[in-house]
Fold this protein.
Amino acid sequence: MEKLVKYIAQELVSNPEEVEVIAQNSEDGIQIKLLLKKEDMGRVIGRQGRIAKSIRAILKAVALKEGKNIILDIEEKA
C-alpha cells in the first residue's frame, strides 16, 4: 500500500524525490501519512479534494480486498 501511494503521489508532483510515505499500524487499521512539500500539496489534493478522494477510494478498494481499514493523511513536510 505504501508503494502504491508513493507511486501515485510521485507521478503528480513536481518534486518526486521529496515525497515521503510513512505507514503505521493503529487500532483502526493502517494509517498512511503522505508528506509533501508545500508547493506540491495542491497537486495531490486537487480541486475540491477530487484527487485525494480518488486516492482514498483506490486504497479503500485494496483494503476491502485484504480485509483491512486504511486511513490516508496528507500533510505538509516540515
User: Anything to note?
Assistant: The chain has one domain: 2-76.
